[in-house]
Design brief:
- With about 110 residues, the chain is mostly helical.
- It is about 100% helix and about 0% strand.
Length: about 110
């Protein structure tokens, strides 16, 4: 019985070696495919990194333009408020002058 057990163990060890050589061939093909996938993944990561950097640059530029436009808007709003105040002052002066002219015509 011990001999049968040893024989079966030896046969079992021989099978994986033969299968291992066949698996090694498949493994080399699998490795090649894996290498391709890794290279594609690396290229994808590089592209994504470049796109992220470009997006960050565009974002920084957009923020700078927004800040500039905000400052212009505040300045313009101030000018509009000043012009409205000046218009009201001029309107009041014209109303007073018209009132004085009306008083003269009587």
């Amino acid at each position: 019985m011990a001999e049968t057990l040893l024989d079966s163990l030896a046969a079992t060890d021989a099978e994986p070696q033969a299968a291992g050589q066949q698996a090694l061939t498949v493994s080399a093909d699998d490795f090649s495919a894996l290498e391709e996938r890794v290279l594609r993944a690396v290229a994808l990561v590089k592209r994504e990194k470049q796109m992220r950097i470009a997006a960050e640059e565009r974002s920084t530029l957009a923020e700078a333009l927004f800040d500039e436009q905000s400052q212009r808007l505040e300045k313009t709003e101030g000018e509009v408020a000043a012009l409205k105040a000046e218009r009201d002052t001029v309107r009041q002066r014209v109303d007073r002058l018209l009132s004085q002219l009306d008083a003269l015509e009587l």
